[in-house]
Task: structure prediction
Amino acid sequence: MTDEDADARAFDAFAQQQDPLDVAAATWAARRRNGLDARGDAELQAWLAADPRHADALADMDETFGAVGQLPPDEVASLRAALPARPALAAPPPRQSLRAVMPWWTGWGRGLPQAAIATVLALAVGGGWLGWDRWQRQPTFVQAFATERGQQRSVALPDAASGASALQLDTATHLEARLYRDRREVHLADGQAMFSIHADPARPFHVLAGPLRITVVGTRFSVRHTSSGVDAGKTVVSVEEGQVRVSPITAGNPGHAAVAAQAPVELSAGLMVVAGQDGRLGPATPIASAAIAPWRSGRISFEHTPLHEALAEFERYGRTGLVVRDPAVAALPVGGSYNLRQFQHFSRALPQILPVRLVPAGDATEIVAR
Result:
């Protein structure tokens, strides 16, 4: 048996469980949208004239076809993918046999866009199918994870019997993990995390961070989305291993037409991308392996980073006691790699690497121009 024959038999079995009038109306809606020749149009008119209920059923199915056309592609694909595994549900008593309602069904019906018809029936008929679909969409696991200021944490997700996905959370990070039957999702509200994802093509892994959606199957990458410190307000994705797809989740929003028009950015190992608050993606740029989530080894790195951003980054891990009020001093660039647990080394080095001096100011120390 060919795949086409198997698909046709699966669809026939699915159709036999539906009200024949619904199947007929959905099929005629599909035929009409694909274009009818003179013979087909005559058959449609004859079908409409045979029963006053046919016109209303056709109008309902045609409207549902339009609704399906407005659904995001991933939702339509999810509905279609679930059809073969649909459990037996109680079907309404048929008013007529399928063959009586559609005498042309046998043979000719195999040429129809069966996935589209089945999807429309799934949405239009409701009842047991939509209840099943809602059950399919319920998460099997939901848990929030968080770290306090200065804390780091490693967690494992129960997304596989072995080789589960691992997450490393940096300081002041808040995220929520949701596992579904057809996908895995993490919503990163604030902070940064390193992801080591267990490969599962049947359940892609999505990270939603600010205005971005990062999609993977199996890889290791870092996502940063913080309200303070370096790149505050932006979202930074860096890939250490494998490949990820980064796209703005504002796509389709009329208010973000320019962002929605952007093509997703594909990142492989050694590449990174930065997005603004509106989801506008910058170009993919190289990044050294050692520069990807250096906080994992207790380091913090700067490259031409304004002093005020460097201080804010240290503040994410603990109080520094340093303040800078002069805008010119705050903009001075800082570089280098530092132990994030030994801030005093950075503090002592400042007068040597920048034209500044440290002046006691009550319970704090002010950085002023020299």
